[in-house]
Amino acid sequence: MKTPDSRFYCPLIQCGSVTLDENESTHAVKVCRATVGDILELCDGQGHFAVGTIVTADPKACQVEISKVEMPKPHKPLLNLAIACLKDDALEEVVFHAAQTEIASITFLRTDYSQEPKNSDLHKLIRRSELKSLVSLKQSKKPWLTEICGPVEFKEWLKGYHGDLILCDVDGEKSAPKEITDKLTNNPSGDNACNKVPTPVTLLVGPEGGFSPDEIRITREFTGGKSYALNLGNTRLRARTAAIVALGKLL
Q1: Domains of the chain: which residue ranges?
Q2: Which of 20, 46, 214, 217 is the most buried (most CB within 10 A)?
Q3: Dmax of the chain from CA atoms?
Q4: Closest CA to 165 of 217, 224, 109, 107
């Protein structure tokens, strides 16, 4: 009996018999060479983990028996990333790295200075990004899948958003606000201490060249929550790099 050094995605985790989809079954049986009696670690991306014993080693429909389901983190992460649409494969690169951290979602924004490739098929981009997020979920062994959202016009997104904002800006503070870091780390002095529903926090990263002056203005004037500005250092960063550096300051 062995346990492959991998985690397998199963969107419906429950005690009893479950069947993995063809992609996960192929990975388990053909790639990891798992067989009947072997143990698989399962996750559903919604906070649940389980250990299953293979009862049918079918590369198209691997069947496992689950005896116990665990939910180590029942609440979805509060931190989100919203980043302007970029050219080439930059957004996919951001997703691949950022989705390995505990963030709830990544939203692609159409901003005044967005650099989308001409005639781009963003439906394909979204699908590829969703797949990268799923790979990152299993690789990082975190409990919650990072949702991929958008693309959406930045000003329209802002109108419907309620929560705190952190704008990556050269004129921002050198460190993240303690109020935000306390909230993200479930500090007892935060919202949870008063049994309030914690508000989300969204990190805003602009395109190459940053957000436009008008976009910066409406972000600073945002009334649906608190708005902060965060400086990422003394050097000028590419947008894809800025996203990861900014997450590192908050997580």
Answers
A1: 7-70, 79-250
A2: 20
A3: 61
A4: 224
Beta bridge mates, 51: 41
Whether 7-70 and 79-250 share one fold: the answer is: no
Task: Give the model confidence (pLDDT) of 60-95 as tens digits.
Answer: 999 999 999 999 888 899 999 999 999 888 999 999
186-204 mean pLDDT: 66
Q: Is the pTM of this model over 0.85?
A: yes
Q: How far is CA 203 from the centre of its chain?
A: 12
Asked whether the beta carbons of 164 and 199 are under 8 A apart, the reply is yes
Angle at 206 between CA 166 and CA 97, to 5 degrees: 80
Please give the distance of CA 224 from its chain centroid, rounded to a whole number.
Answer: 22
Beta-bridge mates of residue 248: none
Tell me what the mean pLDDT of segment 212-222 comes to.
96
Find out if CATH 2.30.110.10 is the number for domain 7-70.
Answer: no
Looking at the predicted structure, is the pLDDT value of residue 231 above 90?
yes
Q: Look up residue 22 and give its amino acid.
A: E
Nearest to 22 by CA among 35, 9, 5: 9
pLDDT at 137 over 50: yes
For the sheet containing 63-70, what is the strand order? 7-9, 39-43, 49-56, 63-70, 16-19
Which CATH entry fits the domain spanning 79-250: 3.30.450.180, 3.40.50.880, 3.40.1280.10, 3.40.50.150?
3.40.1280.10
- C-beta neighbour count of 175 within 10 angstroms: 10
